[in-house]
């Protein structure tokens, strides 16, 4: 713990953990307000990826609503959003056929007109340039591994940059104890299922009275296709096959940029069948006749995966705690039916910045920014999430076909009349608790990848440029090392080897096919956090490895 280690510290007005859309938008807004008021506000932002954008993965069709508020002249400034959506398609897939659903049957906010296809990783790189130009201090490659508290129990800052600890816990020659970054306010913007956010939500009971948070896993590839196959501006979404009616999820495919096709698959982590492998469902999906022609003749150039918050309106935790706030996906503002969250993440970052700036101007520090909660509740973010609040619970309760139809009806009544016949439905259990027993389900047999359209996990992880310092304590920790083999294997078939999209977890046997042992290949981890969420025994704890480790996504 931090008490036992002597560390240097640096003082700031605001310390921000995470260089995603929320963290960067909050940093920019703080500096903009200080400039306008003719005053100074010191802002430090730390990012665990090797550079800003290295760990950012999204579809992405981006709604520029928040970006426009942050920089009305974003186009003139050269924000990397150059492909407007020109064609929207929504398909219901069967095993061999497809049914095109009419876009006019969907509420207006479900349409992508006015949105842009692009790389969220590249947008964050651009936002980082804007932030640095305003004087924000950005420290990439620094993992915030621990919280620092004041004597009164409020959050004072974070510990960053601890390196040089060997696998056995001994200090290596390059050992650095790290340093403490102290802030009058600390913004937690770690993204989905952040390790510090998890501690804070638990410690300050921020989820009391809320539905449990729900999640999905999003897997994504980028392909470069022949020019004659490229349809810039096409946004195609599907639901249905290869998932069954009781398993939620669907696909996205976006044509953009330099003959790029971004293609991905989302599986809701509330699925019951422990034999299901989201990665293999994605690979199988690409062979569908409505999908494969878009990729033929092209080559896959990038791969990655990331968990997505799906709980929505009724799962958003309390947003403030003594000394800081949760912003962006650390709280969970994704609009599930729209498959969009970056605009909401940015806006919540901006709202928090505005409240923190007012507090700093009043000479406050380390107290609770309760006004941020009020600002969120009055914002267009809360309004947008409230309209779609029942879409996910209806899918979970009634399945894709009936639940999807009821969800569409509910969104229309909310949109037109501001009410729902269902009220506000709750999520009844966590995704981990949703996992069924292995004996109740038939093991799924997936087709062998052909190496042209579909691929295996290891060649995929190679494309994510994932790397970790090998001689360091495992960042994937087991509360009880006996659980995978003694509990999870007999009860659930040890689903970690299937839900992990990077081949991190394996069950290995001896030559006689007996004596199973659980192996963790932490080097492969793409930081998606699925294991922390879906492990039915809640025995796996995801912690931050040394800064700079993990994937190095180029343009995801």
Give a description of the structure.
- The chain is α+β, with helices and mostly antiparallel strands.
- The mean pLDDT is 96.
- It contains 14 helices and 24 strands.
- The longest helix has 27 residues.
- Strands 1, 2, 8, 9, 10, 13, 19 and 20 form an 8-stranded mixed sheet that branches. Strands 6-5-15-16-17-14-18 form a 7-stranded mixed sheet.
- Helices cover 27% and strands 23% of the residues.
Quick recap:
This protein has 556 residues and is an alpha+beta fold. It has 14 helices and 24 strands.
What key phrases describe this protein's structure?
eight-stranded mixed sheet, seven-stranded mixed sheet, 27% helix, single chain, 556 residues, alpha+beta, 14 helices
Mean pLDDT across all amino acids: 96
Silhouette: globular
Specify the number of helices: 14
Strand content: 15-25%
Radius of gyration over alpha carbons? Answer: 23 Å
> Level of helix content?
25-40%
Quote the distance from N terminus to C terminus: 35 Å
Total count of strands: 24
Unreliable residue runs: none
Q: What does the largest sheet look like?
A: 8 strands, mixed
Derived structural class: alpha+beta
List the helices and strands and how they pair.
Layout: E1 8-17, H1 21-37, E2 43-47, E3 61-62, H2 65-70, E4 83-84, E5 87-93, E6 98-100, E7 116-117, H3 120-133, E8 137-140, E9 144-149, E10 155-160, E11 163-165, E12 171-176, E13 179-188, H4 195-203, E14 215-224, E15 234-240, E16 249-256, E17 260-268, H5 278-285, H6 292-295, E18 299-309, E19 320-321, E20 324-326, H7 342-361, H8 370-378, H9 380-387, H10 391-417, H11 457-463, E21 476-478, H12 483-492, H13 496-499, E22 505-508, E23 517-520, H14 530-534, E24 540-542
Parallel strand pairs: 1-2, 1-13, 2-8, 5-15, 13-20
Antiparallel strand pairs: 3-7, 4-7, 5-6, 9-10, 10-13, 11-12, 14-17, 14-18, 15-16, 16-17, 19-20, 21-24, 22-23
Helix pairs in contact: 1-3, 1-7, 7-8
């Amino acid at each position: 713990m931090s008490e036992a280690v002597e560390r240097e510290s640096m003082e700031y007005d605001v310390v921000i953990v995470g260089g995603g859309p929320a963290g960067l938008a909050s940093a920019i807004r703080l500096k903009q307000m200080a400039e306008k008021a003719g005053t100074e506000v010191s802002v430090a932002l730390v990012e665990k990826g090797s550079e800003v954008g290295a760990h950012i993965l999204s579809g992405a069709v981006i709604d520029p609503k928040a970006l426009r508020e942050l920089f009305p002249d974003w186009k003139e400034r050269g924000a990397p959003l150059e492909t407007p959506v020109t064609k929207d398609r929504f398909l219901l897939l069967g095993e061999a056929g497809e049914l095109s659903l009419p876009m006019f049957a969907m509420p207006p906010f479900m349409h992508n007109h006015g949105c842009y296809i692009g790389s969220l990783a590249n947008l964050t790189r651009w936002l980082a340039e804007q932030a640095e130009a305003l004087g924000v201090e950005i420290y990439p490659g620094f993992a915030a591994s621990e919280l620092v508290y004041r004597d009164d129990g409020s959050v004072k800052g974070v510990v960053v940059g601890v390196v040089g600890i060997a696998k056995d816990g001994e200090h290596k020659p390059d050992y650095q104890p790290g340093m403490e970054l102290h802030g009058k306010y600390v913004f937690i913007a770690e993204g989905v299922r952040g390790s510090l956010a998890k501690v804070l939500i638990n410690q300050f009971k921020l989820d009391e009275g809320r539905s449990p948070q729900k999640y999905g896993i999003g897997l994504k590839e980028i392909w470069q296709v022949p020019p004659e196959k490229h349809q810039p501006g096409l946004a195609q979404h599907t639901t249905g096959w290869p998932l069954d009616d009781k398993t939620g999820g669907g696909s996205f495919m976006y044509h953009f940029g330099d003959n790029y096709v971004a293609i991905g698959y989302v599986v809701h982590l509330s699925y019951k069948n422990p034999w299901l492998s989201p990665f293999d469902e994605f690979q199988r999906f690409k062979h569908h006749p409505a999908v494969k022609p878009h990729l033929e003749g092209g080559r896959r150039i990038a791969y990655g995966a990331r968990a997505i918050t799906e709980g929505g309106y009724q799962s958003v935790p309390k947003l403030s705690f003594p000394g800081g706030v949760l912003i962006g996906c650390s709280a969970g503002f994704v609009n599930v039916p729209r498959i969009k969250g970056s605009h909401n993440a940015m806006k919540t970052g901006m709202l928090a910045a505005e409240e923190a700036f007012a507090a700093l101007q009043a000479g406050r520090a380390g107290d609770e920014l309760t006004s941020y909660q009020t600002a969120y509740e009055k914002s267009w973010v809360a309004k947008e999430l409230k309209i779609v609040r029942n879409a996910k619970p209806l899918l979970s309760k009634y399945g894709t076909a009936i639940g999807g139809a009821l969800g569409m009806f509910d969104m229309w009544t909310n949109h037109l009349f501001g009410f729902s016949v269902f009220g506000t439905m709750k999520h009844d259990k966590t995704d981990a608790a949703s996992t069924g027993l292995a004996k109740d389900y038939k093991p799924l047999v997936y087709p062998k990848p052909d190496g042209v359209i579909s691929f295996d996990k290891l060649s995929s992880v190679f494309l994510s440029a994932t790397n970790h310092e090998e001689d360091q304590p495992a960042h994937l920790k087991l509360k009880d090392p006996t659980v995978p083999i003694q509990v999870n294997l007999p009860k659930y078939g040890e689903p970690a080897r299937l839900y992990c999209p990077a081949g991190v977890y394996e069950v290995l046997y001896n030559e006689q096919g007996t004596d199973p042992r659980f192996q963790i290949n932490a080097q492969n981890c793409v930081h998606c956090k699925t294991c922390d969420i879906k492990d039915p025994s809640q025995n796996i704890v995801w912690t931050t490895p040394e800064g700079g480790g993990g994937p190095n996504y180029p343009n995801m």
